[in-house]
Amino acid sequence: MVMLPCPICGTDCPADWLTCPSCGWDVTPESRLAIAQQPSHLHWGRSLWQQVQRELALNQRFEAIEQRLAQLEQSPSNPDEPLEESRTISELDHPYVPLAFHLAQQDWREADDWTWQRILEVAEMDEQGWLDGDEIAAFPQGELQTLDELWYAYSEGHFGWSAQAEIWWASGADYAQFCDRVHWRSGRTWLYYDDLSFHRQAPRGHFPVLPWRKRACYGLGGLTAAETLSHWMARFPDLNPDPMIHD
Ligand SMILES: [Zn+2]
């Protein structure tokens, strides 16, 4: 049987078929001839097909999000943790859905903003606008883990505090060195928030931004950026390969 590729999606179709089984395009000889003579139609058909494929891919990602949230919901809570810290996602009425949505779309800026607002809300520090060392130490473990897991999973290990903690300890818990590695400092210039790279090709550990919001060298509230980061990284002691290094 003679097979001919569909002009739109490339699927091999038997020559006597009328429509492509993948994209539904008219693959009769007349249609093939017509479209070969109309490159703009061909281009339009292909871009339409690609758009549909992107939407399908996005839907698949949303399904993955739902599965991921269901997994988190089912994961047994640690019996050693106080009840408050082991609240499941369902009990919290899935507050992470917007974050998962931003992350799935690789909208790192929205995801980072959402994460920061969430931290302030959970810590009840919306008005104050920053967390001190005690408040960071007391930040609920369950929240911390879920936020980190979502960032880490959706960026495939590229972003998230787990990624940052590895870099932090590898930098000898040195803020300037850390900033050079995650590219919060370029040469001798500390980056402003708007200077960050809001795409997946950003250096590993570039997001989320916890120790500062305006410029990497300005702290938040009563703490320097280095102090704030050090308090957060202390929440990930397991990623410290050398326990002799601490802040
Ligand atoms: Zn086709």
Task: Provide structural commentary.
The protein has 247 residues and is mainly alpha-helical. Helices cover 46% and strands 4% of the residues. The strands form two sheets. It has a two-stranded antiparallel ribbon. The protein has a two-stranded antiparallel ribbon with strand order 3-4. Zinc ion (ZN) is lined by residues 6, 8-9, 11, 20, 22-23, 25.
Defining key terms:
two-stranded antiparallel sheet, 2 domains, 247 residues, binds zinc ion, mainly alpha, Arc Repressor Mutant, subunit A, two-stranded antiparallel ribbon
Question: Topology, please?
Answer:
Blueprint: E1 3-5, E2 12-14, H1 29-36, H2 39-74, H3 97-104, H4 108-122, H5 133-137, H6 141-154, H7 161-170, H8 175-182, E3 185-186, E4 189-190, H9 225-233
Antiparallel strand pairs: 1-2, 3-4
This protein binds zinc ion.
Count every helix, treating DSSP H or I runs of 4 or more residues as helices: 9
Tell me the helix content: 40-55%
| Distinct ligand kinds | zinc ion
Strand order of the largest sheet: 1-2
Order of helices and strands: EEHHHHHHHHEEH
SS-based class: mainly alpha
Query: How many angstroms does the end-to-end distance come to?
Result: 72 Å
Stretches where pLDDT falls below 50 for ≥5 residues?
A: 81-92
Indicate the CATH architecture of the largest domain: Orthogonal Bundle
Oligomer: single chain
CATH topology of the largest domain: Arc Repressor Mutant, subunit A
| CATH class designation of the largest domain | Mainly Alpha
- Percent strand equals under 5%
- The averaged pLDDT comes out at 85
| Number of domains as seen in the coordinates | 2
Quick one: CATH superfamily of the largest domain?
Gun4-like
